[in-house]
Amino acid sequence: MIAKINGIDLYYEKNGGGRPLVMVHGNGEDHTIFDEAVRELRSEYCCYCVDSRCHGRSSDTAELHYRDMAADMIAFLEALDLRDVIFYGFSDGGIIGLMAAARSERITTLIVSGANTSPKAVKWWLRPLIAAGKLVTKDKKLKLMLDEPDIDDAELGGIRASTLVLAGSRDLIPEKETRHIAAAVPGAELQILKGEDHGSYIVHSTKIAGLIRGFARTTKEGKA
User: Fold this and answer.
1) Residue 222 pLDDT greater than 50, yes or no
2) How many Cα atoms sit within 13 Å of 170 on the Cβ side?
3) CATH number for the domain harbouring residue 140
4) Which domain holds residue 22?
5) Are the C-beta atoms of residues 2 and 9 closer than 8 Å to each other?
6) Helix or strand or coil: residue 56?
7) CA distances from 126 to 121, 142, 173 (A)
8) pLDDT tens sequence across 21-32
9) Is residue 223 part of a domain?
């Protein structure tokens, strides 16, 4: 399916019925990383798995910025008139979720995995690898990770959705950063998943389905 918003085509797949659950993938991925999780979730939720701009089947754009991607997701919720939304974001999707939830009351439950608030808030060895990849490929998705995001505590403090912040104990994001995000979002819960890396419990995994379901069931309605 295609949602025409903000001058682009945003591709998404819809499965199931019930409370809306919007799921957004990480950098360089697409909605298919959630296929296994959706099979577990679609009996209870209406799952909207979206390809963010410049990814999957969505439109390419000359430039790529997290705030534009967050604006896309807010426009998507408005175009489909989705309310009392559970928003799940992985990595870049988590960054988008934090930004979108700070601006939209339609998101009443927010779950993010492996998100960061600045381009330097990753493990020390990752940025040189990304920079080398960008030098060779000129890929704007890699440039995005080197230059952004820029989320401050005031923005995190504006999130009113019931929030769960997740990361693996072996994540690419330092645990200090994950704990910082959870502390800055009012009332947020934190889970550091022992033995998991950045995407091991998410990408083509059913583990994330249990985490989403468990938290969403405790937050039938958001704080907004």
Assistant:
1) no
2) 7
3) 3.40.50.1820
4) 2-217
5) yes
6) coil
7) 10, 11, 9
8) 999 999 999 999
9) no
